[in-house]
Specification:
This protein is 38% helix and 21% strand. The protein is built from 3 helices and 7 strands. Strand 3 and strand 4 form a beta hairpin.
C-alpha cells in the first residue's frame, strides 16, 4: 500500500499533515568539476549529431550515434539535475540514469551515515541496504528522510 493510506491518512490525493513537500537534491560536485563534465558531454553530443542527421551513413553507425547521443543527453540531465527527490510517496533515487528507483516511506527502517564518505545508507524493512549518492546538502536530506519516515508513526 502506498500514498496517504499507508501513512494512516485519508485516501485523498495529498498528504493531510502538511509535512511532506517535494525537495530535489543535486549530486555533490564542485562547480569546476560539474562544468568540465557538462563540457565533455556536450562535445560528445556535438560529435554524435552529424551521425544521426547525415543521410550517407549506414544504418548500423546511425544506430550507434543515436545511442551515444541519447546517453550523453541523459548524462547531462543527471549531472545538472536532481539525483535524489524527496516526494510525498517516498524517495526517488536517480543515480543510475536513466533508471530510477522509488522507495516508499513505509519501507525505510533506518537511515545511517557512512563515516568518512559523507553518504547516507538506507536500511529497508526487507534487510536490503541502499547507498544513496552524495548530494550537496546532506544534513537537509537526512533531516527530510527522518521527518518523512517518522511521520508514518504519528
Amino acid at each position: 500500500m502506498t500514498g496517504p493510506a499507508a501513512r494512516g491518512g485519508n485516501r485523498g490525493g495529498r498528504c493531510d499533515n502538511g509535512l511532506v513537500t517535494t525537495t530535489k537534491y543535486r549530486w555533490r560536485l564542485s562547480r569546476v568539476s560539474r562544468a568540465i563534465r557538462v563540457a565533455v558531454l556536450l562535445l560528445t553530443v556535438v560529435f554524435f549529431v552529424p551521425g544521426v542527421v547525415d543521410a550517407g551513413i549506414s544504418l548500423w553507425w546511425r544506430a550507434v550515434c543515436v545511442v551515444g547521443l541519447v546517453t550523453a543527453v541523459l548524462a547531462i540531465r543527471t549531472v545538472v539535475g536532481p539525483v535524489l527527490v524527496v516526494r510525498e510517496e517516498g524517495l526517488r533515487v536517480q543515480k543510475a540514469w536513466p533508471k530510477r528507483r522509488d522507495i516508499p516511506w513505509y519501507r525505510i527502517l533506518a537511515t545511517d551515515v557512512v563515516p568518512g564518505f559523507w553518504n547516507l545508507e538506507l536500511e529497508l524493512n526487507s534487510g536490503e541496504r541502499v547507498e544513496l549518492p552524495p548530494v550537496d546538502d546532506l544534513d537537509a536530506l537526512y533531516a527530510d528522510i527522518e521527518r518523512h519516515r517518522t511521520a508514518l508513526d504519528a
